[in-house]
Amino acid sequence: MPSITCKYEDLPAGHIRVVATCEIMNHHTELLARTEAVCSSMEAKYRFRGSRGRQCPVCGSPTVLTAKKEYGGGFYCAKTQGGCGESFKNGTKEAKALADIQPERLENDSPADQWNTVSKMAQKRALMSAVLMATGASALFTTEDPEPPERPAPKAPQLATADQLADMNRIGTLVYGPDKWPAMRQKWIDQNCTKGALPEELTAYQVEGIINGMEALSKAHTATVAD
């Protein structure tokens, strides 16, 4: 039967350190294994809660986040977090400067919320280690986290083909007319892709999204006129 005892140590700023001791005995009360394990709320997974965004070179707000690769990559200043909404495309001097900045990790302002989790984790570590020792199964199992399998490097987003760009221009001309389409095309790009990007810089995914959006808008307009 396993028996676990814990020793709690106070650390600065409300953090704790838990030392768990696990003993496993047989039915004759003979000691088979005795192990100790430690867990602390100062471990990174418990100490930090997210990170602060990079500082925007335009508005100065710490709300710059990394843009998704399907939207062209780079960085953007998040309006939802009080930023200005400016985008910084890969290759620009602003994007290069932002890439060199390491986001500031935010300390967990309520470490006491982690005390119970830290205590249970220390007990779990001690129990797992004791079971492996008592059963002699350490050659088959380990208490360490397994190494994650290597993942292939993500593929770069595929740029739109000439045919896709031609389809976008054809549908845009039909929907808005040849005179208004150039301005509306840039508006679609600024609002749905990367602000200030050129048509030839769009990915196939972005062009497909613009085409689908214009087709849906055209169908809705036709249905309204018919009613």
Q: Assembly type of the shown chains?
A: single chain
- Based on CA atoms alone, the radius of gyration comes out at 29 Å
Tell me the overall shape. elongated
Mean pLDDT level = 86
How many strand elements?
8
Task: Outline the fold blueprint.
Layout: E1 2-10, E2 16-25, E3 31-40, H1 44-47, E4 48-52, E5 64-66, E6 75-77, E7 87-88, H2 93-99, E8 104-107, H3 115-135, H4 162-176, H5 181-192, H6 204-226
Antiparallel strand pairs: 1-2, 2-3, 4-8, 5-6, 6-7
Your description of this structure?
- The chain is of the alpha+beta class.
- It folds into 3 domains: 2-46 and 109-135; 54-102, no CATH class; 162-226, no CATH class.
- Helix content is 36%, strand content 20%.
- The protein contains 6 helices and 8 strands.
- The strands form 3 sheets. Strands 1-2-3 form a 3-stranded antiparallel beta sheet, covered by helices on one side. A 3-stranded antiparallel beta sheet has the order 5-6-7. Strands 4-8 form a two-stranded antiparallel ribbon.
- Strand 5 (64-66) and strand 6 form a beta hairpin.
- The model has no long low-confidence stretch (mean pLDDT 86).
Task: Give a brief outline of the structure.
Helix content is 36%, strand content 20%.
Key words describing this protein structure:
3-stranded antiparallel β-sheet, 6 helices, 227 residues, 3 domains, alpha+beta
